[in-house]
Amino acid sequence: MSSYKESTKIPAKKTAGKHSSISRKISWSLLAVLVPALIGMITIAGFMASGSISGLNTQLIDAQTDYAVSVVDDFFSGKIAIVSLYENDSIFGKYFHAVATPDDIGNYEYLSDVTQELNNIMAATEDEQVLQAWIADERTDCYVIPSGEYGKAGLDDLEWYHLALAERKTAISNPYVDGITGKNVVTIVTPVYYDSEIAGFMGLDVTLDSLSELISGIHVGEHGYMELISNNNVYVYSNDPLAVNKNVDELDITDEYKQKVKDNYNGNYHFTYQGNQYTSVFRDSETTDWLAIATLPVSEMNATRNHLISILAVLAIVVLALLVFIIITIIRRVTKPLSEISGGMQEFARGNLNVELKTMRNDEIGLLADSTRSAIRSLKEMIQDISYILGEISRGNLEVAVKGNYVGDFQDIRNALEQIIESLNTTLKQIKGAAEQVSVGSEQVSEGAQSLAQGASEQAGTVEELAASIHEISRKVNSNADHSDTANEKAAAVGMEAVESDRRMHEMLKAMKEIQESSHKIGSILKVIEDIAFQTNILSLNAAVEAARAGDAGKGFSVVAGEVRNLAAKSSEAAKTTGALIDSSLDIVENGVQIADETAMSLQNVKEGAGEVADALAEITKASSEQADSVAHITRAISQISNVTQGNSATAEESAAASEELSAQAVLLEELIAKFKMQDD
After folding, report:
1. Which of 141, 318, 515, 673 is the most exposed place for a label (fewest CB within 10 A)?
2. Residues linked to residue 193 through DSSP beta bridges, in sequence order
3. Average pLDDT over residues 189-216
4. Strand pairing class (291-297; 225-229)
5. What is the rounded CA–CA span in Å between residue 31 and residue 473?
6. Contact criterion met (CB below 8 Å) for 202 and 80
């Protein structure tokens, strides 16, 4: 038949790129292991190298600081050795023993020997930057120089004097500016002994120019600097000329840095100045205890390390790129046949049964290709047989038989096809019998449904009339509830007015009581006025008696006493008249208070009656609302009954129509079943 014809072979298309290929997975798996390992090795190497470089930088700055200290020690050690030779010098010892006052110096017969000794010292230290050699003693408090000149020494004001006297050994002063030359100078002095006692001092004034030149030759990196600080925290040397001869407290540096200088700190110190980080190494000199400080910016210390890390990073990128290229090339060469097989299987999955695999190898991949070709061939034969069988079934031929070669687990497909054919024959026979029964039953259901639809329609009409009556009752009940609400509101308003009137009546009662109290107070005042008039009258009588005794001299006083008597009489009469008026007013006020009390009692009764009316109306309103709610519930129930009844009517009509349609479909089903050719026909 046509379904068994051979088709033209179509080469398999490579579609592996649409999904994640095995070569890509292998590549990513290897790279996921090798790349982190290589990055880790390079990172470790970078850290180790940077640590070594940082250590070398630290050792370098330490060495430069130690070299600066050695320069200072070398500078002073020779001079200290020369000065120490004269601790027991006999010429100086005899001189100090012989002189006691400044006048004794010029009269000392061996002064020339002293000056000669000093000149010999100057000659011996010609290359030692010695500015002056001298001797001085405490008794004369004068110094003598090689020229034979002498002058006031002021030993008590010199720091080296107290230091040498206390330690009884060679001492070095802190730097100071020489008043004549303007140069930085230090004094190296040693005590001179005579009979095991300090008789005086011999010293050298040494300039520090050559020491500064030596230290300036020490370069701490490209941007680092070297500093030398004396015991009194004064800069002896600094790359910044403005800092020389200044105390550390005068400079704009951190307080912690200043404190380390003052503590004569020895060691490494990291600090930040003007936004830049620095590393300093502090070392003190053994000969002077001066502090040598080498400072280097951290950025410069890290420059070599950063450069090495950059080189390692570039090298790592190159190695990684080369490694990725090699791995991808090898994996693609190995997995290329797998890509071809994968592409063929994808074409087969899309329904292309004419896939051609060209891979021919003698390894596992070749065996996979052969197995794939065999599987495709077997599936193609089975699919063609299944297509033939399904085509015959679609044309109504259920007598078709399964003839293909189904091997292995595919035997289940053969069994399933045979069961399908048998089940279709059995099912269609059953459907044919059921269709006949449905046709008969549907006619009976149609008749019953029509009768039910008619009864449901009549019931729906009755329910609608009942719903209309209930709706009218509900409307009237709601109207009554609304009127009750209005009456309740008006009663509440009347009650509020009664309460307000009662409050105002109480205020009026309070005012009446205040008027009554004020009237009583006025009566008391009138009593006082009558007393005053009485006393005034007595005084006027006394005044008239006294005027009579005085004779002609008291006539004027008698006239005044008469006027006072008249005034007292008028005041008494006015007080009596006012008292009568006030008594009348008190009677009227008492009557008004009594009337106000009675009125307040009446208003209280009105307020209580209004409250009772409001309560009664509230009960009526509540009852009307409950009646309205009950009627509303009844209305909703009637509406639901009406809806159900109408639904039943519609359902009955639909059932009747469906029954008629079912009868027609049963007839049609019998006609369709008759088209199939079944095994028992």
Report:
1. 318
2. 198
3. 90
4. antiparallel
5. 89
6. no
- Single-letter amino acid, residue 91: I
Quick check: 189 and 167 in contact, CB under 8 A?
Answer: no
DSSP string over 487-551: HHHHHHHHHHHHHHHHHHHHHHHHHHHHHHHHHHHHHHHHHHHHHHHHHHHHHHHHHHHHHHHHG
Rounded CA separation 154/142 (Å): 7
Strands 355-356 and 10-11, by their bridges, are parallel
Q: What is the pLDDT of residues 351-403, one digit of tens each?
A: 776 777 767 777 777 777 777 777 777 777 778 778 878 887 777 777 777 77
Using alpha carbons only, give the angle 117, 156, 111 rounded to the nearest 5 degrees. Answer: 25
> In this structure, which amino acid lies at residue 455?
G
Transcribe 231-274 into DSSP letters: TTSBEEE-SSGGGTT-BGGGSSS-HHHHHHHHTT--EEEEEEET
Q: Count CB-CB contacts under 10 A for residue 181.
A: 13
Q: Are 281 and 293 in contact (CB under 8 A)?
A: yes
The helix-helix angle for 411-550 and 364-394 (nearest 10°) equals 90
235-237 sheet: strands from edge to edge: 235-237, 225-229, 291-297, 276-284, 267-273
Average pLDDT over residues 492-510: 77
Q: Roughly how many angstroms between the first and final C-alpha of the chain, as a whole number?
A: 25
- 209-244 residue pLDDT tens: 888 888 888 888 778 888 999 888 899 888 888 888
Over residues 484-504, mean pLDDT: 77
pLDDT over 80 at 679, yes or no? no
- What is the spatial distance between Cα 322 and Cα 165, in angstroms, rounded to a whole number? 78
H/E stretch holding 340 reads helix 298-349
CA separation (Å) from 597 to 346, 502, 505, 518, 601?
Answer: 112, 11, 9, 19, 6
In 3D, which of 530, 532, 569 has the Cα closest to residue 561? Answer: 569
| List of long-range contacts for 15-19, beta carbons under 8 Å, 24+ apart | 15/342, 15/343, 15/346, 15/347, 16/339, 16/342, 16/343, 16/346, 18/346
Residue with tokens 């008004």: 592
**From residue 63, how far is each of 66, 67, 215, 219, 294 by CA, in Å?**
5, 6, 13, 11, 10
What residue type is assigned to position 58 of the chain?
T
Token pair for residue 1? 């038949």
SS3 content of the chain, % helix, strand, coil (to 5): 70, 10, 20
Single-letter amino acid, residue 213? E
Whole-model pTM above 0.85? no
